[in-house]
Every structure is written in C-alpha cells, then in structure tokens.
Design a protein that fits this description.
Blueprint (H helix, E strand, L loop, with lengths): L1 H26 L7 H14 L17 H13 L3 H27 L2 H12 L3 H8 L5 H18 L7 H17 L4 H13 L6 H14 L1 H9 L3 H8 L11 H16 L14 H25 L5 H22 L14 H14 L5 H23 L15
Length: about 400
C-alpha cells in the first residue's frame, strides 16, 4: 500500500509538471498562431453562432471536427480567444498523459518504466508539444484515442480482462478516433493483430458489441461518405501528392519517414525546419539515442535465449507498433515534412525510450538516471529555445500559411 501511494504521488507530480510547462508556454505565447489553428477557431466560432456542425475540418474530407466542437464549448464558457482554444487542449493533454501512463503501465508491468515514459511525455519534444498543445484539427485528439485503443486492446487480450464494458469502450474510442483522424489506423491494426492472436468464436457477442460501438463512434464519418461517394476514403490513398500533383513514390515516402518524420518525433529536427539541420542539442543527444538502439540490438540475442520475459514482450510490442506504422505510411499517399503523421508513434516511442533507459540500470542506477536527465534536458531545453524565440514554436513550412 505504501508503494502504491508513492507511485501515485510520483505520477501526480509528473502530471503537474507537464501541465505547468504547457500552461507557462500558453501564457508566454510560445506557440505561433497559424492558419490551421485559425481555421479550428473559426469553425468553433461558427458552431457557437448556431451554424451546422461540419463533419470534417474546413476544406478537407478526412479529419473530423471534434476538436472544433470542444473548442466551441470552451468559447461558450471562457469567451472567444486563442488562449481559450489552447486551454481546452490543456485538458485534452492531461487525458493524453494519463492514458499514456496507463498504456505504459500495462505493457511494461513496471511502475518505474511507466513513470519514466510519463516524464518523457510530460517534457516532450517540440513536435509532440506542438501537436498536443494547440487546436490544429484532429491531431491532438487522435493521440488520446490511439492511446485508449492500444490500452484497451492490451487489457482485453494480453491482460485477459474481458469485461463487456471494455469491449464497448474499445469500439467507441476506436470509432471516435477514426472519425477524428484516420492516423489511428496504426492503433486499430495493432489492436486487430492482438485480437487475432487471442481470437475465440465463443466471444462473438463482445466482438459484435465492439463493432457496434465503433460504428456509433465513427457515425459522422460513415454518414458523410455515404452522401459523398466515399470521398474521405479515397483521400487516404490519393489525397496528397507532389507540388505538381503526382503522387509520391514509396521510396520518397520512405525517405520522408526516415529523414524527416522520425527525426522530428525524437526531437532531432524542428517541426518547421526545412531539410534536416542539426542543432547543437541534437548533436549532443544523438549519441544517447544511438547507444540505446545499439544496446537493444546487441543484448537481444542473449536475452532471447532466456525464458520469455515481460520486458521482451513490451519491447516486441513497441517494434510491432513501429512496423505497422511504417507499412501503413508506405502504402498511403501521405508524405510528412513536419512530424505530425508520426504522432501515433509518440506514446510507443516514449515507452521504448523508457525501456531502453531502464535497461541501463544493469550498469548501475546512476547511469540510467544520467541518461534520463540528459534526454529531459535536451527536450526541455529545445522547448524553451523554440517557444521563447521571436517567432515562437511553429509547424508551417510555407511562409504564406503562417
């Protein structure tokens, strides 16, 4: 009981730290106000004025309007302002951090590793902070629903917690997430793979419950597509292309993922930076990230010869999520230069970093603590530098959209 209370206090302190950091950045106007956020605020204003709630983000047919609906609620209570929209996102960020901790806790079965993952998310990379702190369409919400989908899927399959309400919650979270942002497809695919591994015909009733809840949660998506010749579905396969209109090749998408998206996910590249300029902080932290990766690869054969462990299962899950994401990314039409399409990987990546840092404890707890401190100093220092700069933290590569 004493250990439980200690863990609870640690989690609450980390959550408070994360909220204070985001609150300070909002108060200091550290995030640039740009076109995408302006559209969400405009949609919210229209909703407050009584106009029909749009199914999708203005000018698109694939990203749901839930973010604007939530901001509209904030406008009604707190008044219309840029800060109000970001305060609403602060509440969503809290739920995202809580769901991320819950996911890390069940996957790793370690309160210590889960707390480290939560700390890495509380003091995030610039890309993660941007897309969880400003209403930019369906991106902030999608991380929350992806976390819930992965958490419930693990509990229902690996964790063997099969209460009927969990099946309904899984379907509802996945459905709302699908309407909000189809990037949740990675979480859906991972949940499906876990479900297939633990499939039983005798549980058809709870499968039907999850399916019905999914349809309810994603109902706006289905109604729109039935009236518009499956426009949203078509957009996923050919919606984005090169400036000339031609679709990106698989090689170009792979280059974008490896050279632009993943570095932004791990904080090695600023969201709005053209190309891949390495900052001094990046040069200092890159050896640590490479060390964690090499340590995993070098020690894996020896650890595989032992009995299967919870840690190996957690590490395998992280690699599964990354593998599924890479496959989805390569067969879709999207090519990301800012890191937002990698946001479904943010929580699994944080869990992977926490597992890698915790693995260093075999050399002594001090080395693990130093590694965690270096990572947090890098991420926090980058946030301070970008948010307190003259331009603020921004994601638009095109100058005319800022």
């Amino acid at each position: 009981m004493r250990q439980h209370h200690r863990n609870l206090i640690i989690v609450l302190l980390i959550l408070a730290l994360g909220l204070l950091l985001r609150g300070w950045i909002i108060a200091s106007d550290g995030i640039a106000f740009e076109s995408d956020e302006a559209i969400v605020d405009l949609m919210a204003r229209h909703i407050v004025l009584g106009r029909p709630i749009p199914t999708f983000f203005y000018g698109q047919s694939y990203m749901g309007s839930l973010n604007a609906v939530l901001v509209a609620g904030g406008f009604r209570w707190l008044g219309e302002s840029v800060e109000t929209g970001r305060v609403v996102l602060l509440a969503i960020a809290l739920l995202t951090l809580l769901s991320g901790y819950g996911l890390a806790r069940v996957v790793t079965s370690s309160a210590r590793v889960a707390a480290m993952a939560l700390l890495i998310m509380a003091i995030p990379t610039a890309s993660a902070l941007l897309y969880t702190s400003a209403p930019l369409g369906g991106w902030p919400d999608s991380v929350l629903y992806a976390n819930l989908t992965l958490l419930l899927a693990w509990q229902l399959t690996v964790g063997q917690k099969r209460e009927w309400w969990r099946w309904g919650a899984l379907g509802l979270a996945a459905g709302i997430g699908w309407w909000t942002n189809p990037s949740i497809i990675t979480a859906l695919a991972v949940a499906g793979l876990l479900g297939l591994r633990h499939f039983s015909v005798r549980r058809w009733s709870v499968y039907a419950l999850a399916g019905a809840a999914f349809m309810i949660g994603s109902l706006p998506w289905w109604l729109y597509n039935l009236r518009h010749d499956w426009e949203a579905l078509a957009y996923l396969f050919n919606g984005y292309g090169t400036p000339g209109g031609a679709p990106f090749s698989a090689g170009e998408r792979a280059l974008g993922l490896i050279g632009l998206g993943l570095p932004a996910l791990y904080g090695l590249r600023e969201p709005a930076a053209a190309g891949f300029p390495l900052s001094l902080e990046s040069l200092l932290i890159l050896p640590l990230l490479l060390t964690l990766l090499l340590d995993f690869l070098i020690t894996l054969p020896r650890r595989l010869r032992r009995e299967p462990t919870v840690r190996l299962r957690a590490e395998g899950w992280v690699w599964l999520v990354f593998g599924v994401f890479a496959l989805v990314f390569l067969v879709s039409s999207f090519f990301d230069a800012t890191g937002r399409y990698q946001m479904p990987l943010w929580t699994p990546a944080s869990i992977g970093l926490a597992l890698g840092i915790d693995r260093l404890r075999r050399f002594g707890p001090a080395l693990s603590a130093i590694a965690l401190g270096l990572l947090l100093a890098f991420q926090g220092g980058t946030l301070v530098r970008l948010t307190q700069s003259a331009d603020g933290l921004q994601f638009q590569l095109a100058e005319q959209l800022r």
